[in-house]
Amino acid sequence: MSEYFERNLQVIQQRWPALAERLLLEDVGGLQADLVEGLGSTLSINSIQLTSRHDRLAEAGLQAASLPQDATVVHVYGTGLGDLQSHLLERTGLERLSVHILNGAVFALVLQLLDQSPWLADPRVVLLYAGDLAEIQLPFFALPAELVLADDYNAKIRDRLISEIHLDFTNQAFDPQSPEIVERLQSTFSLVQEDCDVAELFGTLKGGEAFVIATGPSLERHFEKLHHLSKQAERPLLICVDTAYRPLIDHGIAPDIVVSIDQRISVRHLPPESTDNIALVYLPMADPSVIRVWRGARYAGYSSSPVYREMREQLRRAELHVGGSVIHPAVDLAVKMGAAQVTLFGADFAFPHDKTHAGWGDGDLGPQLGASRHWVLDGYSRRVKTQLNFRSYLCELERFIAGHPQVRFFNSSRDGAMIVGTDFHPEYVQ
After folding, report:
1. CA–CA gap between residue 346 and residue 358 (Å, rounded)
2. Is the dihedral of CA 356, 361, 366, 368 positive or negative?
3. Are 400 and 381 in contact (CB under 8 A)?
4. Packing angle between helix 3-15 and helix 104-113, nearest 10 degrees?
5. What local confidence, expressed as pLDDT, does residue 18 receive?
6. Cβ distance 176 to 309 under 8 Å?
7. Which InterPro entries does the entry link to (predicted)?
8. Sign of dihedral through CA atoms 137, 142, 148, 149?
9. Considering the domain 175-424 in this protein, what is its CATH number?
């Protein structure tokens, strides 16, 4: 035990004894640590530099400057080498600095190598593991290196942080003044005008059960059971997302409702044949050529997006929750219809079994398996490949579930991402 570690640990034991015990159990030996030198020096963990190797203090100053100067409470995610914490504590108006550990082993190693006691001893500091809280706290700064190095326990919070950081960039694709968006809404205006309000479906399934079917690879394991169930007179309502429709039809499973929101979905995904008894729920950004040839009942709705502001003023339609993926309005529809129980199929948010989607080839729906550079934990607490936007979609679904405690949510598979707020369905989870 180094002199630095004894000094640092003594402060932590005095202030946060339970956390100190956790830090003593961290596997520091599993890390590859190297000193990296430039104009200055820093520590590299598993080939990821914790800070600048040229001027750590200047970097910390830039990071601190991104936070509101008048904030009395600030949250820092990741511990780094303590530079940002020390810089923020120079603010006289700061009343509390919460430091959220993103990788316990990394922090334990830094405690061995550098004196962190000055900022740890400051009475304004609160120290905790990021994963101890279910949601991110604002305002925050997340140290970039530790967003990469985040361990399994803190991975859910890492995903929420990255989703929040990318929010402005993501929203740039939905500029209400975009010529493509204006043109699309003009082309679907008459369809929305003639079709039913999705609100007509609300409350029609009071206390019932709904299956919401997405296109994750785990869906393939349920085709046989879903086919058998779909032929029964008394069964849950089957709501599927647009990309799941063709795989279901190919296996003789006719859903009750298809939900579509994406302008890139075509008749290739939603062929109109045999749709006479299937309802289509869509948002006005959907392809008008798909909507027009649909033979079953059609219901239009909006999301809260600003792209629908002008149309909303002219045509009143109910809203469905959208968090980036069609899975969100599909689940929200089930809840607003009155479902007391919702079971998710193919809601993997990942690429289990080295596949991207059920019923589609690699890259048919956009992402290719070889391009996946990220991971989430599956229902076995193992890391499974995914892509960045899938993790954001997962975060939004978990937030939605947390906001609807009156509904019981089930997941039908352990193979995809672990979805906080769901239980594993005893009949469908193998």
Report:
1. 8
2. positive
3. no
4. 130
5. 97
6. yes
7. MptE-like (IPR002826)
8. negative
9. 3.90.1480
Cβ–Cβ < 8 Å for 193, 169:
no
How would you class 290 by CB atoms within 10 Å of its CB: exposed for 0-12, middle for 13-18, buried for 19 or more?
buried
CA 71 – CA 110 distance, rounded (Å): 28
The reported pLDDT for the residue numbered 44 is 95
Please count the residues of the chain: 430
Q: What is the pLDDT of residues 167-220, one digit of tens each?
A: 876 666 677 778 889 999 999 999 999 999 999 999 999 999 999 999 999 999
Distance of alpha carbon 346 from alpha carbon 333, whole angstroms: 17
Region for residue 341 given its phi and psi (left: phi exceeds 0; alpha: psi -120 to 50; beta: otherwise): beta
Contact 89, 97 (CB under 8 A): yes
Where do you find CATH 3.90.1480 in the chain? Answer: 175-424
- Over residues 247-280, the pLDDT tens digits come to 999 999 999 999 999 989 999 999 999 999 999 9
User: The pTM is what?
Assistant: 0.90
Query: What three-state secondary structure class fits 98?
Result: strand
Phi, psi values for residue 385, rounded to 5°: -65, 145
Q: What is the per-residue burial (b if ≥16 Cβ within 10 Å, else e) of 310-329?
A: ebbeebebbbbbbbbbbbbb
Statement: residue 1 has pLDDT above 90: no
What order do you get walking across the sheet with 237-241 strand by strand? 196-197, 298-300, 279-282, 257-260, 237-241, 209-213, 341-345, 408-411, 422-424
| Per-residue pLDDT reduced to its tens digit, 319-362 | 999 999 999 999 999 999 999 999 999 999 999 988 999 988 88
